[in-house]
Amino acid sequence: MSRISIQALAIAIQKIDAMNEDQKMILADEIFIKQPNMLSAVTALRSMGVSFEKMTVAFEILFVCFQAMKESKLAWPLITEDDQEKQLKRYVAIVKFGTDLSANLEHIAMMQYVESHPEQPLLAFISSEHKKFLEYNVVQKSDRFFILSTVTLVNCIAFVALP
What we know:
The protein is mainly alpha-helical.
């Protein structure tokens, strides 16, 4: 069962969509204070060749994730660099495992991953954002960093131990 409900996610999406740039800067400051490693995961994308346009999408995803954490009313611990590294390695291993399978088995493995994910609504949200953005933009080599970074955010939220 998700710790972030569909309702909390929907409220977060609505709040972020309604924010102007100044309000988003205030939210970024709050993220810097409460979850600085989540913020750095997105800001580091520029050094990996991710365009400003894609970074904007990554920031929107970060804002929704953070706001959804707030809307859950749970006490979230600091997500550490170790948490991020662990979740990145875990996700990369899952993806590599899937690429070694036949198309049918790869699909089954992907469905098992999604169905067993602790934060399915949040995972669905970012997957939808990835699809929308990549559908209308030229795919570049740096897109893998964009996707890895945002999936790692969700996986850190999903698997971090709550107090």
